């Protein structure tokens, strides 16, 4: 019986985000923010004191469909919460992560499985190995950036 460690990793899938290839990261982030409509927020809490709540509330206010992913919640911001990404019945553009870095690899694997377009690790969250795994699978990756701040900053730049 072959050792699973001997199994070759799947070939990269850069075609998934071909339009982002070659773009400078700031431009690619702008494209993701402008074109992504459905955002699964992993770790979204109904606690108004949490950053996840405020970021999701903002994103919903600017027309994004927010999908809470948290097994400890039934609904957040009027949206049904799901225990896992794999339970979400609609296509997801961005998987936004509000979990500790130790949980990121399993979330990235789920994001790959559901064919998300982007994995966004919120401000303060970084996991280089998981990011590389996501990139290898063709997902665009953002680490250690606040989606709300990035969206507001780019919106202000457009208004100038």
Which blocks of ≥5 consecutive residues have pLDDT under 50?
Answer: 1-15
CATH architecture descriptor name = 3-Layer(aba) Sandwich
CATH fold name, please?
A: Rossmann fold
**Number of contiguous helices:** 5
Strand content range: 15-25%
Binned, the helix content reads 25-40%
The fourth-level CATH homologous superfamily is: NAD(P)-binding Rossmann-like Domain
Mean pLDDT: 89
Q: Based on DSSP secondary structure assignment, what is the total number of beta strands? A: 7
Task: State the order of secondary-structure elements, H for helix, E for strand.
Answer: HEHEEEEHEHEH
Cα shape: globular
| CATH level 1 name | Alpha Beta
Largest sheet: 5 strands, parallel
Query: How many domains in all?
Result: 1
CA-atom Rg in angstroms: 16 Å
Quaternary structure: single chain
- Structural class estimated from helices and strands: alpha/beta
Biggest sheet strand order reads 2-1-5-6-7
Give the N-terminus to C-terminus distance in angstroms. Answer: 63 Å
Concise summary:
The protein has 160 residues and is α/β, with parallel strands linked by helices. The protein contains five helices and seven strands, in the order αβαββββαβαβα. α4 links the parallel β6 and β7 (140-142).
